Amino acid sequence: MRCDLIGLPIRVTELVPGRVETNLYRTALGKEGAKKKLYDDYEAIQPEHMARLLRTALELTDFVDVTRLEVMPTGQVVGGAQMSKLSR
To answer: Which is nearest to 42 in space by CA: 81, 17, 74?
Structure first.
């Protein structure tokens, strides 16, 4: 998309989040199932964290393009296959 828009005053930013606590898996696992399996023992990014990052990218001057924001919980490895549980 970025190549198609070159020369136009349009910026393209790709958001690549790790585990974000959303309703996405609640449909498949049920509300409590998703909470127990994906979120209870782990730190997850909250939607407002991603919104804050996007707002920051949008507020930059017009000639600055944040091309990619890859954001993960500290306990998640790149690729997302493994996460460390919270120590309680």
So the answer is: 74
